[in-house]
Amino acid sequence: MAEKEYDVLIVGSGASGGMAAYSLTQKGLKCLLLEAGALVDFQRQRGLKPVYELPYRGFGKPGRLPHVVQANEFNANQWVDEQQVPYTHDPKSPYNWVRVRMVGGKSLFWARMSYRLSDYEFKAKDHDGFGDNWPISYAELAPFYDRVDPIFRVSGRKEGLPQLPDSQFIEDKSPDGAALERIGTAGKSRGMTVTKIRRSLGDGQFASSFNLLLPAAQATGNLTIVPNAVVREITTDKATGKANGVSFVDRQSGRELHAKAKVVVLGASCLESTRILLNSKIANSSGVLGHYLHDQFYISNGVMGVMPEAKDGKAPRGLVAGAGYIPRFRNLKDPKTKAKNFLRGYACDLYPGATPDAKLFPAWGAELQKQLDTFRGAGIGTTIMGEVLPRFENFVKLDPTVKDAWGISVLNFQCRYTDNEFNMAKDAVDTISQVFKDAGFEVLNANDKMHPPGYSIHELGTCRMGDNPKNSVLNKWNQSHDVKNLFVMDGSSFVTSGTQNPTLTILALAMRASEYLAEQAGKGAL
Amino acid sequence: MKRRKFIQTLAVTPAAALPIVSESNAETPVVAQRPQEEAPKLETASLDAAGETMPRFFSAAQLAALKKLSNIILPPLNSMPGALDAGAPEFLDFLIGKSTAERRQIYTAGLNTLNAQATKRFGKAFADVTDAQAAELLAPLKQPWTYEPPADPFARFLREAKQDIRNATINSREYVTAGSSGGRRGGGVGQYWYPID
To answer: Strands, E, within A242-307: which ranges?
Structure first.
């Protein structure tokens, strides 16, 4: 049977691959989308179970997913099997690579936190001299954010903050609660603000490419989705050097296949797209492919606050409402926000009404139970999210000694945090602890030790964009400097991370790049 | 309540008890014809309703210490079953036996230390010390929690054991059935992902 040649072949079906399919098919391009995982029937694939019916009583099978802190025995089967698709790292420098392979990708499970980047990120070098600027500004991406917001139905409240541009919100009119207002008041002298959580409401149980992008793309009649297709490498025309398709493996049988296309788009997630490029031995004339790996460090409950008046179930009416968010407030233009010993900044989620974990109480038996009863619902949980500096020294490369279940070389990670991150973490915990105290709250526990790199599932930067082909993989349109008909549209294109969750920006970048691709294809320029 | 009695009270009664048929009117029961595509639905009970976990990993002395420790960490409180009612020590014998060598070592060394310290200070095994004596031995649990595990292996064991004993109890059939409420962490019902083909 003759191979059909598609206009565009898209690898990956999550946020970036889904948005590429959504945008390109609407422009009339015939697209083939290859997804490494299955098309899941959620009615059949999931079911309610009591924890005691699980074989390991909720602990999970020992050693099954050692790097996925988010895994538990209920959801263990939704993550990529670390034995089937392994990766390597120095035992002293762990990396938590958390992966999902199914149609919809990680967009099926993300926390839906939807924040825009600002020129504090896009023009970070202009601001503090470190690293590189993005080749685009906020103004260039804003029109695409504006079009992504209504698709994902982003809720929030307009705040007018330069470091956290507002979205086209479905307005969140719920009250803040007195606890958050007190934190905002106590932190004001430091330039701190407490905002609403900004979140994609989506449609029904998902805010995913699975329900918001792929159905619309398929309705055009221009999209073919093929699940269970594990891409091995991009193939190129030896005469022109251009991509002409991909070779891939049937996930279930191991059968090798090849698909042809005029243009290839990678949207397989930051590190899987990088792995495909490294295995393809293309798009790396700069030598930076795989480098500048960064993310956001996370500290779960770095500060556990306590509302004294809420102990013993006596929270006054109006003290606790919803969750809140402290956007970055360090190292902004205002001189009083300057930090002594680190660049950039951190953000923090706030969860008033939390119950502190039993591990935080130095007690056992009846005494511990008494403490738990006293503090139930009286806590203020936090998640601290710090910007990690992109450094050439943090990178992934192919491990020549290890292959996955389909014989594809795996990644080796060389990544560690540095003093900038450690100093930032300490400042975050000290500052938020003090603000809690200034607001009249207690601090039950403070911890400035972050999870290992990768925990946030916000890996970024390994195919970064830039104007200079000597120090970047992609141009400002997410297009390979080396291979003109190759685009990489996921988080690997980021130059800096900011503190904001990256999905909204990935979606906006993928929409922008796809429309450029369609325009260039129409001109015959690819 | 003893665990065996607990299990007996929880044993699932078949929805439709078998009819008692006297010898005089015994007949071959008539089963209604089912549509060909419809499979019969049989009721089943869980493994724990049928038997108790047989410890295989810890020595008798280690298991006795773990049972004592479990009853101290989470005794029956507020009408809820405690760790012994929930079979937490026996379950942890199974779980730790399946775990990494490092985790097995933490537990076996920790339980041995509990017994050695009890013998040295009070002249008896940990299983036989009084609550006041046990509290002296468990002093490392009075230290504030830190993200990094304690450097002292015994303190690390106690911290892990405290968390494991609580989880093994709260997630047990006995605890959930006795009225634990709500969410997954409380030992309730969760959305389970079946293996993907």
So the answer is: 243-250, 256-266, 296-300, 303-306
A364 in Cβ contact with B68 (< 8 Å) = no
Q: Would residue A237 count as lying in a domain?
A: yes
Round to whole Å and give the CA distance between A19 and A489.
9
Contacts of B41 (CB under 8 A, 6+ apart): none
Q: How many CB pairs under 8 A join A and B?
A: 124
One domain for residues A233 and A325: no
Does A72 contact B at CB distance below 8 Å?
yes
Measured distance CA(A266)–CA(A56) in Å, rounded:
38
Q: Can you read off the two tokens belonging to residue A46?
A: 């999931």
- A371 is in which domain, residue-wise? 162-200+294-391+414-458
Find the largest Cα–Cα distance for chain B: 75
| ipTM of the complex, rounded to two decimals | 0.90
- For residue A183, what are the CA distances in angstroms to A96, A178, A352, A441? 32, 9, 11, 9
- Whether residue A69 lies within 8 A of chain B, CB to CB, comes out as no
Where is the domain boundary, A458, A489, A516? A458
**Using one digit for the tens of pLDDT, what is the confidence trace for A388-439?**
999 999 999 999 999 999 999 999 999 999 999 999 999 999 999 999 999 9
Residues of B in contact with A62 (CB under 8 A): 95, 98-100, 103
